[in-house]
Amino acid sequence: MKVRVAEKCGFCPGVRNAISTAERILAATGDQEQVHCLGPIIHNEDVVERLREKGLRTVASVDEIESGTVLIRSHGVAPRELDRLREKGLHIVDATCVLVKRVQQIAKQLEEEGYEVVIIGEENHPEVQGVMGCVHDVVVVAEETDLDRLPSDKRLGIVCQTTQSPEHFGRMLGAIGRGSFREMKVINTLCKEAVKRQESAIALCKEVDIMFVLGGLHSANTRRLAELCKNHNNATFHLQNWVELDKNVLFGKQVAGVTAGASTPNWVIDEFVKHLERFDERRECRLEN
Question: Other CB atoms closer than 10 Å to residue 103's CB: what's the count?
Fold first, then answer.
């Protein structure tokens, strides 16, 4: 099978920094002290498992950590959680993506300027929760159906989850703009790397028979890639790796496209592409018969 890979895909700089930081800490500490990560370091089970084998312990709460080193993942964390870690006297290593930190700082600034902070994004996503923890009053809206949460006749300061698409950001701003408010200040906090990956994926999916989006099922940026590709190519599949592929979807297809989320390592992409390239429909039919 002929395979084409999106020009922009895989690890972004923020994820790459988080992984390299984790590996450096694990190598330096060895068995001398426990290294914890507050939540999965990135939304990719393959990577999380590899780091677990090297000694990185993923925990869901500060309450689970009594001693050692704590790695703050790429999605960041709310300031109150950092305070709790400091109170316990833990060694903190911050691997928060610089763009996520920027959103946190902007949210604080908007509140200080008297704006009601509005985040366009997924309320349960760790990045959004970290930003929410930086301000006192905040409203999160994911879709237009959430706009009834917005306060009326207020000054709105709007930011966006970094991995949303420009199309969704613009559509939500247009919908908010039709509402009742005194002033609306918008700061574009979209990640340029995420946008480039989206543009590259959309361009490729239009030119292939079948499209594969590789990455964690809990990864917001990967899910967004899959949604965008599905809009242009109905034969789009979101998979974590090759093991999850049902080969039946390949029958009758000549050219496959592959892209991957910002938290998907190159080795997962490379393995998937190699298996696709080796796929021979006639040989598979003979094996089944």
Answer: 26
Q: What is the pLDDT of residue 46?
A: 87
**Residue 156's pLDDT is what?**
97
E strands along the chain, which residues?
2-5, 35-38, 56-59, 69-72, 91-94, 116-120, 138-141, 155-160, 183-186, 210-214, 236-239, 255-260
176 phi/psi in degrees, rounded to 5? -65, -40
State residue 238's pLDDT score: 97
Distance between CA atoms of residues 47 and 76, nearest Å: 18
pLDDT in tens, 210-225: 999 999 888 889 999 9
Q: What does the chain come to in residues?
A: 289
Q: Mutual orientation of helices 220-232 and 192-205 as an angle, nearest 10°?
A: 30
**Are the CB atoms for 266 and 12 separated by under 8 Å?**
no
Q: Are strands 183-186 and 155-160 parallel, antiparallel or unpaired?
A: parallel
Contact in structure between 74 and 100 (CB atoms under 8 Å): yes
pLDDT at 136: 94
pLDDT tens digits, 113-166: 999 999 999 999 999 999 999 999 999 999 999 999 999 899 999 999 999 999
- Does this model's pTM top 0.85? My answer is yes
Domains of the chain: 2-10+193-288 (3.40.1010.20), 13-96 (3.40.50.11270), 99-191 (3.40.1010.20)
Report, as ranges of residue numbers, the positions in the chain whose pLDDT lies below 70: 282-289
Residues 6+ away with beta carbon under 8 Å from 120: 140, 141, 142, 158, 159, 160, 161, 164, 168, 169, 172, 173
- Which residues does the annotation mark as catalytic? 127
Q: Pinpoint the alpha helices (H) of 88-191.
A: 98-112, 126-132, 166-177
